[in-house]
Amino acid sequence: MDENNRNLLIATGLSMLVMLVWLLLFPPTPTEELPLPEEATADSIDGAPVATTPQSGETAGTAGTPEPEAAAEAPRVVIETPNLVGSLSLLGGRFDDLRLAAYRESLEPGADMVRLLNPRSEAYPYYAVYGWAPAGGLAADAVPGPNTMWELAGGEVLTPETPVELTWDNGQGLIFHRIVSVDDEFMFTVEQTVENTSSSAVSLAPYGFVARHGTPDHRVLWIQHEGLVRMTDGELEEVKYSNMEDLDPAPGGGVMETMTGSSGGWIGFSDTYWMTNLIPEPGSPFTSTARYNENTGIYQAEILFPTLTVQPGETQEATGMFFAGAKEWEVLRSYQNDAGIERFLDTIDWGWFFFLTKPIFWVLHHIHELIGNMGWSIIILTVILKALVFPLAYRSYVSMARMRELQPEMEKLKEKAGDDREKLQKGMMELYKSNKVNPASGCVPILFQIPIFFSLYKVIINTIELRHAPWIGWIRDLSAPDPSSILNLFGLLPYAPPDPGSIIAIVSLGVLPIFLGVSMWLQQKLNPAPPDPTQRMIFAWMPWVFMFMLGSFASGLVLYWITNNTITFIQQYTIMRLHGHKPDVFGNIASTFRRKRAEEAVANADSKPKGK
């Protein structure tokens, strides 16, 4: 077998193996939709954590879930910021109605804003609650919880310029105040104070929790993390919704996992593009708990602050932050660097190859800032990546060119060795060594591209900067597959393309996947077809197999692959010319068709009945 073709066959086979594992073993699967949970009971996880003693870090669920009707009828405070629209319920002082002003559900005109938080009166409730947990014998009804009806003591509309103040008097000598403020991005600040006007000391602990009833009702790829995300003293933990049932059994039912931090962290739920997160003041101690109850289908992330003892006539306060919004890289970085929230950028799912994914996104982000078009930014990024690996690719191409020059000597070795394969292998190794040729060097560039390919795929799928990002013409969303279809002649026929989830969508190729197949096919034509019929068949099918495999991938990724193939073609063609070999691309294409016609003629001749 020709060594050049063997190397290319091995390298391409490895690439195909990775892609097949990707698509077949880990196919895109819809996230399981859980039924709406029934009303929570006194043992439900939908309640405040309880600080049993000032020294205890244990938490448990308590009663306190309002009826959906009560939640719907409760007074509300309007929330208006450049990025958030919604309202704050005075029942529990809960964040349960929030939409993202800058993001739409789809690209259709008039599409609704993305809905992040939902009250209990609507499908799939998703909300956050702050309160105080009793300790040291204090009665549960002496502290505000999810059922507490707060009074609006100051402010009318919550904006970045106008915070609101809530108050509640328990009638037993404790007066609670809560000041809620919000910035012009996605961060709320909750300042809680308790004033003790009674004659005895009380112990209680501030807390916050985020509760989610059921899971997101959209399709999630296995490469995307959606579920719990938590940082505790520099240690990142990600638990998918489907894996939360494997947590430790919890008192009173369900499962839970508790971690204690001493220097900072956060806990919440992360979707692909959106997130809710409870954050203590940087550097302050806290206890975070992840919970799931299969009976109610409620996922909960809790944060409990140290228990406070409030003497008569004394006032104590605690401050926490609540992030609810889009995982924009610039915004998260500013909270990490300016607000001191530890590793907040890691709420973005960077994946296994984070050491590549992070710098790749950083470069892509800054290119986009300069030119303002994400599609052209991907093309420029591909050029930069190819330039960085060019020295490696150059040595590989040169080695392949030298192997081509050694073909006459290799043929002589084959004639001398005959059927003695050991003698042939030994002679070939000596030939490679004396000419300083590495037969495996042709595989190196492709193997090196695999982690880059995965990292870029992670960037395109998981970073919100690519969501609904247009390129040219019909490519209006680089995070989605090419919407054009060969089945309606790319829009010339008055038929809609098949739904992306249907079986027929597999053959509904768009413009970009077709260009991808053609670019791979032309790259093959730099060299004559291998003489071995099996190799020739594999090489002939390979570009079109990849075309169908990548057809349903994000347009941005297919654009990267087309650009990569084009640059590789130019590099190989140039290097081959520099080494005295003139690739005859059109001649190789023509010889392919001539060979095919000759094979058909032979087949037809063999099929005819021979005369007697």
TrEMBL record:
<keyword id="KW-0143">Chaperone</keyword>
<dbReference type="InterPro" id="IPR028053">
    <property type="entry name" value="Membr_insert_YidC_N"/>
</dbReference>
<dbReference type="InterPro" id="IPR019998">
    <property type="entry name" value="Membr_insert_YidC"/>
</dbReference>
<comment type="similarity">
    <text>Belongs to the OXA1/ALB3/YidC family. Type 1 subfamily.</text>
</comment>
<feature type="transmembrane region" description="Helical">
    <location>
        <begin position="543"/>
        <end position="562"/>
    </location>
</feature>
<keyword id="KW-0813">Transport</keyword>
<dbReference type="GO" id="GO:0032977">
    <property type="term" value="F:membrane insertase activity"/>
</dbReference>
<feature type="transmembrane region" description="Helical">
    <location>
        <begin position="7"/>
        <end position="26"/>
    </location>
</feature>
<comment type="subunit">
    <text>Interacts with the Sec translocase complex via SecD. Specifically interacts with transmembrane segments of nascent integral membrane proteins during membrane integration.</text>
</comment>
<dbReference type="GO" id="GO:0015031">
    <property type="term" value="P:protein transport"/>
</dbReference>
<dbReference type="InterPro" id="IPR047196">
    <property type="entry name" value="YidC_ALB_C"/>
</dbReference>
<keyword id="KW-0812">Transmembrane</keyword>
<feature type="compositionally biased region" description="Low complexity">
    <location>
        <begin position="57"/>
        <end position="71"/>
    </location>
</feature>
<dbReference type="GO" id="GO:0051205">
    <property type="term" value="P:protein insertion into membrane"/>
</dbReference>
<feature type="region of interest" description="Disordered">
    <location>
        <begin position="42"/>
        <end position="71"/>
    </location>
</feature>
<feature type="domain" description="Membrane insertase YidC/Oxa/ALB C-terminal">
    <location>
        <begin position="374"/>
        <end position="577"/>
    </location>
</feature>
<dbReference type="InterPro" id="IPR028055">
    <property type="entry name" value="YidC/Oxa/ALB_C"/>
</dbReference>
<dbReference type="Pfam" id="PF02096">
    <property type="entry name" value="60KD_IMP"/>
</dbReference>
<protein>
    <recommendedName>
        <fullName>Membrane protein insertase YidC</fullName>
    </recommendedName>
</protein>
<dbReference type="InterPro" id="IPR001708">
    <property type="entry name" value="YidC/ALB3/OXA1/COX18"/>
</dbReference>
<feature type="transmembrane region" description="Helical">
    <location>
        <begin position="374"/>
        <end position="394"/>
    </location>
</feature>
<dbReference type="GO" id="GO:0005886">
    <property type="term" value="C:plasma membrane"/>
</dbReference>
<dbReference type="Pfam" id="PF14849">
    <property type="entry name" value="YidC_periplas"/>
</dbReference>
<dbReference type="InterPro" id="IPR038221">
    <property type="entry name" value="YidC_periplasmic_sf"/>
</dbReference>
<keyword id="KW-1003">Cell membrane</keyword>
<keyword id="KW-0472">Membrane</keyword>
<comment type="function">
    <text>Required for the insertion and/or proper folding and/or complex formation of integral membrane proteins into the membrane. Involved in integration of membrane proteins that insert both dependently and independently of the Sec translocase complex, as well as at least some lipoproteins. Aids folding of multispanning membrane proteins.</text>
</comment>
<feature type="transmembrane region" description="Helical">
    <location>
        <begin position="502"/>
        <end position="522"/>
    </location>
</feature>
<keyword id="KW-0653">Protein transport</keyword>
<feature type="domain" description="Membrane insertase YidC N-terminal">
    <location>
        <begin position="76"/>
        <end position="363"/>
    </location>
</feature>
<keyword id="KW-1133">Transmembrane helix</keyword>
